[in-house]
Amino acid sequence: MRSDSVLDTLDRLRPRFGRPVVVANVVAQIGIVVTGGAVRLTGSGLGCSDWPYCEPGHFTPEFHSAMSINPLIEFGNRTLTGVLLVITLLVAALVATDRSRPRSYRWLATAPLLLVLAQAVIGGVIVLAHLNPGFVAVHLLISMTLVALSTWLMLRFREGDEPSRALVDPVTRTWVRVLVALTVVVLVLGVIVTGAGPHSGDDEVGYRFAVDPYLMAKVHAAAVWAFLAVLAVVVWRLRRAGATGRLWRTAVLLVVVTLLQGAIGYVQLFTGLPIALVNLHMLGAALLTAGVSSFLFSTRTRGEITTGAPAPEAVATV
Fold first, then answer.
1. Computed over its alpha carbons, how large is the radius of gyration of the chain?
2. What are the CA-CA distances from residue 219 to residues 37, 188, 198, 225, 308 (Å)?
3. Cα atoms found within 13 Å of the Cα of residue 237, Cβ hemisphere only
4. pTM of the full predicted structure?
């Protein structure tokens, strides 16, 4: 089949399947954070002792009387990674090939596939390196980056390609940038807290970050309070400016997610870090990342989506 025929076929499929695929990508990216957390929290990081096979010479776990649930949890996470790979391939095929959209948009649609492939390699390195906490930390932070990029892509799918125009004043825009920077700080500190504590990986491998986990938890909490303070300033400025519509809704939703995530964080700390709450906190971190990405997106606009002639390649800002 000629390449033009393939592209024409994708153009016909895109209006019907493009939106569901980019939404599924966001859901799967958040889901892989949760299943990856389950692997870490249940000490299943070495449930499969090899990679890409689960056991030497066996792609799936070997069933026997002494088998624990750990290989199934680890293999389940690897299986979801395969599903995610298929979804990101569909995103690249349906969205990145849209010749009517600018080049930056098409690169954004390719990013999930490239990063998921990188994640698969890093996951293998983690197993071969016996759950080195540094590699585990990078693995999780890339997953959060994928959540943010995938959320942005989902929202960009139905947005136009005019030059980006701010919907907030310059001072508020600066505060929003500070909020985004604090999001990164909060996520990094959260990863360090987990890597230093009792849920850093596998029970049989005692690697930990060489820091006091309780002290790091307090530093992490301080960063969250700073995030909440900056968010309060941003919301106050938006309220004073009479913000409405999507901008106001995403701001309020971000406040709700932040408060719930903070509450879960304190409850898990003072109840001895039960696995269910810690995993719920990881889900909250992914939702917070998606919320910040969505809120940042709502502070600017590129107009309504149009169909017709291809967009000029000069438009290069996502």
1. 21
2. 22, 11, 18, 10, 52
3. 17
4. 0.87
